[in-house]
Design brief:
The chain is an alpha/beta fold. Helix content is 44%, strand content 15%. The chain is built from 14 helices and 13 strands. The N and C termini lie far apart (52 Å).
Length: 332
C-alpha cells in the first residue's frame, strides 16, 4: 500500500454503486483541505477488488486507486462503505449485498480507525456483523428490510446519521454530505465544518438528530378519503382540529377515523396533526422573522408552551434552539 500521511479516507467501490455516495464525500474532504490550508491531512483513495473500471448505478465509470488486498495491508483512518440498490418487477427497492464484498468490508474494517456507511451501505456493514448491538440508520426505503434481516441491529430510520462509537451510519444519498461534515467536525472542530458547509452552499449543517423525513414526504395513503383528510389538515393547520371535527368532515365515526389513520398512516389523528404542525413550525422558524409566539399561533399550537413541548418531544430541541441551528439567512 502506498505510504500515506495524515488521515486516509478509503471509499469502497463495486459494480452498481450509487455515484453520489462515492463522489460526495471526497468533495467535502477536499474543501476541508482548502479551508485549513491542508492542515486537515485528508487523503482519499477509491478501492475495489481489481483496478478495472467500476460502472456506477448512474452509468458513470470510475477508476479505482487501489485494490482491497493492498489497502488491507496498511492502516486506514476512515472506511466509507457506499450502497447500491436494485428494483424488482413491482419497482420495490432492494439493497445489493454481495457476499464477497461483505467479506472484504469485514477485512478492511479490521484495519480501520473509523467505519462509516452511506445510505444502503448500512446493509453491507450489517451483513459483516459490524452493526450488531448498535443503533444504525439507512435510507428510509430499506430500513424495514435492514431490521428484518438483522435483528441484532437497532434500526432507526429517522435521523440523517447516527454515531455509535467508531461506527457511523448515514441515511439518504445526499446525507453523505452531512455525514462527511460531521466527520470533519469530529476531527477538526465545528468551526471548520461550518466553513466547509458554507462553501458547499449548505447554509445549515444538520446534526445527527435531524430527521431525514418531512411530513409531505411520508408514505402516501392508499385511500382517497385519508388523502383528502391530509389536505384538509394542511389547509386548516392554524385552526383547532379535533378528532370529532375530522370525523365529521370525513363522514365517519370517531373510532372509525382513528382506525383509518392507524391502518393507512401508522399513527393516530392527534399525532399526525402534531407532526404537520411541527413541520410547518420548522419551516417558519427556518425562513421567517416571526416570533416564537407568532409561530405557535400560525401553526395551531395555541400557546408557546405547547409548541415547545411538541418540539422537545419530536426533535429534542426547543424552537429557539432549532432556529439558531437551522435558520436560513434572509436575502438582503
Amino acid at each position: 500500500m502506498p505510504e500515506t500521511a495524515g488521515r486516509l479516507i478509503l471509499i469502497v467501490l463495486f459494480e452498481g454503486v450509487d455515484l453520489l455516495d462515492v463522489t460526495g464525500p471526497p468533495e467535502v474532504f477536499s474543501l476541508a483541505l482548502r479551508e485549513t490550508e491542508e492542515a486537515a491531512g485528508y487523503r482519499v483513495l477509491l478501492a475495489a477488488e481489481t483496478l478495472d473500471p467500476v460502472t456506477t448505478g448512474a452509468g458513470v465509470r470510475i477508476l479505482p486507486d487501489i485494490t482491497f488486498a493492498r489497502a488491507a495491508a496498511g492502516s486506514i483512518d476512515t472506511l466509507i462503505v457506499p450502497g447500491a440498490v436494485e428494483f424488482d418487477e413491482e419497482r420495490r427497492v432492494h439493497p445489493l449485498v454481495d457476499p464477497r464484498l461483505v467479506e472484504w468490508v469485514r477485512v478492511l474494517a479490521g484495519r480501520t480507525h473509523r467505519i462509516t456507511s452511506v445510505c444502503v451501505g448500512a446493509h453491507l456493514l450489517a451483513a459483516a456483523g459490524l452493526l450488531d448491538g448498535k443503533r444504525a440508520t439507512t435510507h428510509w426505503s430499506t430500513a424495514q428490510q435492514l431490521a428484518a434481516d438483522h435483528p441484532a441491529v437497532e434500526v432507526d430510520a429517522d435521523p440523517i446519521f447516527i454515531r455509535e462509537g467508531n461506527v457511523w451510519t448515514g441515511a439518504g444519498i445526499s446525507a453523505c454530505l452531512d455525514l462527511s461534515l460531521a466527520l470533519i467536525a469530529d476531527d477538526l472542530g465545528e468551526a471548520v465544518a461550518l466553513r466547509v458547509a458554507r462553501q458547499l452552499v449548505m447554509y445549515l449543517k444538520r446534526p445527527s438528530g435531524q430527521s431525514q423525513f418531512s411530513v409531505p414526504l411520508e408514505q402516501v395513503s392508499t385511500t382517497r378519503r385519508i388523502e383528502d383528510l391530509r389536505h384538509h389538515i394542511l389547509r386548516h393547520i392554524g385552526e383547532p382540529l379535533t378528532v370529532v371535527d375530522l370525523a365529521a368532515y370525513a363522514h365517519v365515526s370517531d373510532r372509525h377515523l382513528t382506525r383509518l389513520f392507524k391502518t393507512e398512516l401508522g399513527t393516530t389523528p392527534h399525532a399526525y396533526i402534531e407532526s404537520v404542525r411541527v413541520e410547518k413550525a420548522r419551516h417558519e422558524l427556518e425562513s421567517s422573522d416571526a416570533t416564537v409566539e407568532r409561530v405557535a399561533t400560525l401553526c395551531g399550537f395555541g400557546t408557546t408552551d405547547t409548541l415547545v413541548r411538541a418540539f422537545r418531544r419530536r426533535l429534542n430541541l426547543t424552537p429557539t434552539e432549532y432556529r439558531r441551528r437551522f435558520r436560513v439567512p434572509l436575502a438582503p
